[in-house]
Inverse folding.
């Protein structure tokens, strides 16, 4: 008689952010194997996109996911611009980077915060959310919404920064540095956080390559892979930044990579503000979209996001397909959860920053 | 360090709550907040680009049968506050206010709309109804339009064609 038994984790689990069902075979409290079942958050968005015109789809793609809600319309617009051979004005490209990086800071802060909530350290979790709140106020002041900032449109950016908002943005970023540095120090040195996160959810670099993982999950295992560096889009080729890498290959390493990326993002925004030329923010507002097909990719907070689009000369796309970072990253869970403790499952799942509303859309 | 957590706690005690006292006090509402839509019927030309780009189909243009103009509806409960209408409006007639207050009783749900009447102008020759051209739009296209241009834009397309043909004929005749 086998002494393993099967326990369900999810789909509505107290510590998972979104619905996903794990069927976990355990022996004692050690995970032997897992089976993942997705499909609880399916909304049929790829089909919905075919019934909406190119402009309406900017908004639809933004609603795919709330935490990387800037990357979806950005990549969608880039795919469309590739088809129509639209050149985005330089200022528009810098504005796109600013929007992207502000969203990245908020997303990373949220994920690290939730990780602390999962291990039961709610004081530091609430502190993370409070630090993140400055970014939410910033988004509300510049773009007018806390999550769906609606910064992109076909051929450029939809918003502009005046001197007053630019000064406000600079001031907020300057004020953010100290709390994030303190937060990173607390995360890195607190003995209980260390005890729960170090050596948990090990992902060897070879496995990260084998499974084709991306984003902070791969970078936490020392894989130098960043779309912003490799195939720069928007204005990333004119900006200096480092790809933050971790060596620990564990939950803690992935969180520290995310915290490190916040500083890179702050520096990127400051460089944008320094270098940004004056001029138009957007090209011809109603461009003709010819028939064709294109692929665009960008670095979302969770990893590499790819959009494929085919058009047929009408106002509606013929096919719109996207591959989101979580789709590749959750395969890595098979490695990370192997021989893990039952109590660590939620923590390890959170460490890949899963976004199921993107993946199942 | 464990100590720095106590520093955070002590600062939190000193600062008091970080949340706004809403609904008993004011809450954070920046000027650029994307809230309820308003329409200025004076500067609207009724081109319909807002209805085309509207993601939720919240904007409806309905022609009046007597040809006097069109009714412009914006349904607040269908609006996603994306601001595409404002971005693509050629005359800045439609814009998002920072009024985010959309709570209402269920029986009022059909009143949660913006309704404006976009009146058509009359042709100065044949008094046929036609979409009116706001002055701001003419300025936008021509800088400061001459009187002749303004006269042309007071004509309906049919009369404009006739007048242009007459002018052209007169030129040939000369």
């Amino acid at each position: 008689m086998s002494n393993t038994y099967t326990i369900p984790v999810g789909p509505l689990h107290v510590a998972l952010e979104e619905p996903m069902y794990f069927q976990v075979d355990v022996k004692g409290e050690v995970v032997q194997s897992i089976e993942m079942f997705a499909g609880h958050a399916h909304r049929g968005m790829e089909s919905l996109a075919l019934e909406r015109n190119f402009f309406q789809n900017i908004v639809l793609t933004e609603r795919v996911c709330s935490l990387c809600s800037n990357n979806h319309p950005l990549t969608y617009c880039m795919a469309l611009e590739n088809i129509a051979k639209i050149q985005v004005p330089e200022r528009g490209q810098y504005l796109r980077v600013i929007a992207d990086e502000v969203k990245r800071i908020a997303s990373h802060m949220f994920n690290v915060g939730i990780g602390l909530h999962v291990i039961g350290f709610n004081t530091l979790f609430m502190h993370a959310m409070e630090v993140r709140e400055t970014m939410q106020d910033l988004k509300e002041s510049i773009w007018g919404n806390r999550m769906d900032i609606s910064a992109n449109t076909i051929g450029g950016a939809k918003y502009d920064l005046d001197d007053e908002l630019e000064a406000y943005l600079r001031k907020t970023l300057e004020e953010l540095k100290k709390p994030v540095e303190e937060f990173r120090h607390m995360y890195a040195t607190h003995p209980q956080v260390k005890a729960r996160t170090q050596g948990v959810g090990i992902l060897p670099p070879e496995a990260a390559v084998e499974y084709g993982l991306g984003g902070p999950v791969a970078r936490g295992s020392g894989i130098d892979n960043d779309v912003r560096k490799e195939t720069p889009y928007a204005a990333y080729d004119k900006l200096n930044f480092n790809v933050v890498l971790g060596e620990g290959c564990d939950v803690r390493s992935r969180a520290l990579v995310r915290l490190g990326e916040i500083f890179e993002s702050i520096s990127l925004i400051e460089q944008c503000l320094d270098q940004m030329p004056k001029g138009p923010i957007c090209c011809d507002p109603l461009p003709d979209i010819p028939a064709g097909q294109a692929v665009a990719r960008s670095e979302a907070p969770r990893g590499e996001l790819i959009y494929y689009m085919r058009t047929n000369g009408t106002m509606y796309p013929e096919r719109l397909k996207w591959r989101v970072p979580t789709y590749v990253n959750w395969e890595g869970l098979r490695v990370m959860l192997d021989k893990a403790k039952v109590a660590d499952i939620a923590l390890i799942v959170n460490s890949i920053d899963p976004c199921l509303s993107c993946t199942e859309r | 360090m464990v100590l720095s957590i106590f520093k955070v706690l002590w600062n939190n005690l000193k600062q008091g709550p970080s949340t706004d006292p809403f609904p008993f006090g004011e809450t954070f509402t920046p000027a650029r907040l994307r809230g309820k839509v308003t329409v200025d019927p004076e500067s609207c030309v009724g081109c319909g680009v807002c209805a085309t780009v509207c993601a939720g189909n919240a904007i409806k243009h309905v022609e009046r049968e007597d040809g006097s103009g069109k009714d412009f509806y914006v349904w607040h409960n269908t609006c996603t506050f994306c601001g595409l209408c404002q971005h693509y409006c050629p005359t800045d007639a439609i814009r998002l206010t920072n009024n985010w207050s959309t709570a209402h009783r269920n029986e009022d749900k059909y009143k949660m709309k913006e309704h404006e009447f976009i009146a058509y102008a009359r042709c100065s020759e044949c008094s046929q109804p036609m979409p009116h051209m706001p002055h701001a739009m003419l300025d936008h296209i021509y800088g400061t339009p001459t009187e002749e241009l303004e006269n042309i834009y007071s004509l309906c397309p049919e009369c404009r064609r006739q007048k242009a043909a007459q002018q052209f004929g007169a030129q040939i005749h000369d």
